[in-house]
């Protein structure tokens, strides 16, 4: 038979356990956020060095950036954002990591220009085209699509031609 003191200590234990779990989850989320920014910064540094390297190096870096953005997009959607809010994720939720990562990418003009001009428009390497298009699709929530597609002459035509020629 339990006494009222036993029930109280069991309740207190449950509350403390729940609070500890919440604190650990919050700490892990913060650590993951810092890691995501550090990972992207590291990948952009690797990209700087690999620009004159092999296609395999570029494909690997673009793929890793895509995977990072895809992971953070999944985390962003877990927060159940308004599906009709078409603002940049960083404006819709200033604290979200996805918005911060997209801002980091777009602040690097050399990278975004290389992504569109060199890897999509001018490269004939299928693997590089594919990795670049995957990344472009992943970063679209942060882009002003009208501006990008108007400024990059021939981009839409290139994408349509690939879609028509796909097996």
Automatic annotation (TrEMBL):
<protein>
    <submittedName>
        <fullName>Vpr (HIV-1) binding protein</fullName>
    </submittedName>
</protein>
<dbReference type="GO" id="GO:1990244">
    <property type="term" value="F:histone H2AT120 kinase activity"/>
</dbReference>
<dbReference type="GO" id="GO:0005634">
    <property type="term" value="C:nucleus"/>
</dbReference>
<dbReference type="GO" id="GO:0016567">
    <property type="term" value="P:protein ubiquitination"/>
</dbReference>
<dbReference type="InterPro" id="IPR033270">
    <property type="entry name" value="VPRBP/DCAF1"/>
</dbReference>
<dbReference type="GO" id="GO:0030331">
    <property type="term" value="F:nuclear estrogen receptor binding"/>
</dbReference>
<dbReference type="GO" id="GO:0080008">
    <property type="term" value="C:Cul4-RING E3 ubiquitin ligase complex"/>
</dbReference>
<keyword id="KW-0539">Nucleus</keyword>
């Amino acid at each position: 038979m339990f006494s009222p003191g036993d029930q109280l200590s069991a309740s207190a234990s449950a509350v403390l356990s729940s609070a500890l779990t919440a604190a650990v989850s919050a700490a892990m989320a913060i650590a993951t956020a810092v890691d995501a920014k550090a990972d992207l910064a590291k990948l952009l540094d690797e990209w700087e060095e690999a620009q004159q390297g092999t296609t395999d190096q570029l494909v690997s870096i673009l793929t890793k950036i895509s995977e990072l953005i895809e992971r953070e997009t999944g985390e962003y959607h877990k927060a159940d954002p308004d599906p009709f809010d078409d603002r940049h994720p960083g404006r819709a939720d200033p604290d979200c990591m996805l918005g911060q990562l997209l801002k980091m990418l777009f602040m690097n003009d050399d990278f975004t220009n290389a992504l569109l001009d060199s890897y999509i428009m001018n490269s004939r390497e299928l693997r590089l085209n594919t990795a670049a298009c995957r990344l472009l699709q992943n970063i679209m929530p942060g882009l002003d699509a009208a501006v990008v597609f108007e400024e990059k002459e021939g981009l839409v035509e290139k994408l349509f031609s690939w879609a028509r020629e796909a097996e």
